[in-house]
Amino acid sequence: MAAVVVLLLALAATGGLYTAFAPASKAKAEDTAQSLAIEEGKKLYTVGCASCHGTEGEGTTDGPSLVGVGAAAVDFQVGTGRMPAQQPGAQAPRKRVKYTQAEIDQMAAYIASLGAGPAIPTKNQYDPAGADAAKGGELFRNNCAQCHNFTGQGGALTHGKYAPNLGGVSNKHIYEAMLTGPQNMPAFPDGVLSEQNKKDIVAYLNEVNGPETETPGGAQLGGLGPVVEGLFAWIFGLGALIAVTVWVTARTAKAKRS
Fold first, then answer.
1. Does domain 121-215 have CATH number 1.10.760.10?
2. Known EC number(s) (predicted)?
3. Scanning 106, 208, 212, 237, which has the fewest C-beta atoms within 10 Å of its C-beta?
């Protein structure tokens, strides 16, 4: 009996110790990994970003403050190659990405440590599988088409700025753009457009800009719709007919005189 009691006490003690210390060890390991990511991110930031955004992300005359922009803004700007910027200008264009995704995640962790902001979305948030593309089209036309065109082909703004073409942009970056509002774009947090709304918009853009929607017949005039395309046909088509008519009339009159 004594041996059984001792065994039970030992098992109870082992279970208690595991319960007490295992979660703490896991949390400590996660904290350590996060601290290392922040530390490495700060090194990358100091070399590539601090000259414009300040040593602590406070901003300078050459770049805005990054305090509170969140990890999602870093993932979008650096992940699309817009940052680091090559030169000052009205707008930073999309270009070749200079950092690996691991390095981008480290910089995002550092910027997130400076102030609360939107986190990098998970795949489940921006994956359009099962989303309502028709609803997304309605939301896009009401909130985005004024700048990006009805099918996301982009358009000119004022003072050298522009709304970029959304063709070829990853689902994650489209979602992050809506979440953070990069450059001239307004932000659409979940209180304005819900997570499902954003996913519906991503689904719509996938539908209208997918490879199966390419126009083998030639340019599609930005996808502006039948009014613009009809006006194009009216002006140039009718103009061509008038030119041919004038040419034929002139040739006929010349033949009669001769």
1. yes
2. 7.1.1.8
3. 212
